Automatic annotation (TrEMBL):
It comes from Xanthocytophaga agilis. It holds the Pfam family FecR_C. This is FecR domain-containing protein. Residues 153-239 form the FecR protein domain. Keywords: Membrane, Transmembrane, Transmembrane helix. The chain crosses the membrane at residues 102-120.
Amino acid sequence: MPFEDYTPQDFVENEFFCQWVLHPTEDTSAFWEMFLSLHPEKYQDILKAKALILAIKETPAIVPDEVQIEQMWQNVITRTIAKSEKEDFQSDSISRSLWRTYLGWVAASLVIVVGGIWLYNKPILFHPNTITYQHLIEYQPEKLSETRNISSDSLQISLPDGSSVILTKGSRLSYPPSFGNIRKVYLEGEGFFEVKRDTARPFVVYAGQIITKVVGTSFWVKAHDEKSDIEVDVRTGCVAVAVAHFVNEPLSEIKPQFLLSANQRASYSQLDKRLERSLVNNPLPVIRPKIVSEIVYMDKPVVELFEELEKTYNVDLVFDAETLKNCRINTSFSNETFFERLEIICRVLNTNYQIVETQIIVKSKECS
């Protein structure tokens, strides 16, 4: 449910709102200031919710004074009338013991919310298992535009800042009509992003629990459903990848777990709750290769060839240069992929390699 449809009690039960009232930060204050500027009609509801939260915090086991009771109980009456449709319901017919019971219930609810336990089946606020695309877009302070690719082909869209996204079949992306200090977009499915460089305004992609933050680069993000792994593949540049713990968690409080460069991947298992880093399946050249049909190497030092591959594909090849110093190779490359080229070299050297996260470890053997 969007915040603009919230009642005071809904705000009290919302963990993100409670955090702002009890422990405000620059990010949360900016969020709610923006929300109120867009929805000034919610000002009184937010004031009432704040008053109730603070009253519970200060005196959770004591009945508030008459003024507080009148202010807060009127909201309860309004909700009760709406639900029961009893027009003759009067506040003076309700005993103070009932009010104590209600206040205790609200206080207990608030403790549960702050503690991170579920209430009313609303885990989307802070439980990592349930952050979905729909949850992300519903809990934003401004209206978002959504583009969905319903065709059988890829769809390219332009964003307000000049960045572009290619959406695969069945994917969708939500974003605001114009970006603020942080360029935020929300993805379900697969999208290839080419981000216009703007060092003053980071570009952030939300996909399930995964947050990808960049300045200017190109990369894939894949987030299909709640069971599939979420993947971030970097094509060019550098991106920071983090895991969110609840919807609208302030970016300043989220610590990036990995900093990825070209041809690296972050993969998040939604079942195991584990984020891992690796190489992409098919590393592509980061340095534009010379336009030739075939590259021929005659008596090429293997160490130099490995170093050339490292620079061309931005990969980390681990090998013993001293052991391989006398190794030379005669070979040629044309349209082979990175791993095909590596396998050709290893076959000539009668050795093999092992991939450990983003490193490729070549078992070095001396050459006679």
